Here is the input.
Amino acid sequence: MRQPLVAGNWKMYKTVAEARQLVSELVPGLQAIGGVEKVLCPPFTDLMAVAALLEGSGIGLGAQNLHWEAQGAFTGEISPAMVAEVCKYVIIGHSERRQYFAETDTTVNRKVKAALAQGLTPIVCVGETLAEYEAGRTAEVVSRQIKLGLADLEISEASAGSLVVAYEPVWAIGTGKAATSAGANAVMTDVIRPGLTELFGAAVAQSVRILYGGSVKPDNAKEYFNQSDIDGALVGGASLKAGDFIAITKAAAH
Ligand code: PGA
Here is the structure.
């Protein structure tokens, strides 16, 4: 049984003061929901303050990125150990990182390895662009991202819970144009789990959680969570509104 996971990707929103306000609104509502792993991923500058507020709450904390090197002259970057001091999770290879910050399957792979070595749970994002989708290349693109992004990892059945994949069609992110739940599920069933099986074997592939991301809202969340291979959501815009994020998390608890 895969435990549902709902993660909020705050992107570049919320100062520390704003983050404190949002977390204070989120905690009571989220704590009342059982059976779902809940994760907040604020910007780096908010992490310490949010970590203090989440202590003992059972709500997890994640970063939105890390560098793969342990330390060094990498101005503006944050190391895996720095992230692991405050977080249990880290988003890797989000399409905005791939699109605006030149991340590739190779850098994603380095980051995933570094995160796992540090005991972090990576939430590895994959997904096709609108042009790739329209050209019918979804399966090809997503299977390449899985194969290269997750190459050469040691994942056992026991550690499979510490690897999370998020399928986020780029054309569905922040556009209000969500993928159909059946369409997203088909990519997971026909492309992502088979890719995981090839890399790690069937038992691991069945234990890795796969999230859907892209315009998940309170009114469509249930549809996704009812699908056989969708184990939760990576929520952007709606994670910035306490009521919406709590409602989405509630929908995952069935
Ligand atoms: P969205 O973003 O929910 O605002 O579409 C999802 C994401 O980018 O993780």
User: Anything to note?
Assistant: The pocket of 2-phosphoglycolic acid is lined by residues 9, 168, 173-174, 213-216, 234-238 (CB under 6 Å). The longest strand covers residues 121-126. The longest helix spans residues 181-200.
